[in-house]
Amino acid sequence: MSYFSNSEELYEYLGGVFRKAAATEVGPKLATADIDLQIYYSDPDARVLIKMHGDNIEVLDGEENEDADVKLFMPADIGDKYWRGEYNLAVGLAKGHVKAKGPVNKILKLVPLTKPVFPMYREMVKSKDAAAA
Question: pTM for this one?
Answer without folding.
Answer: 0.94
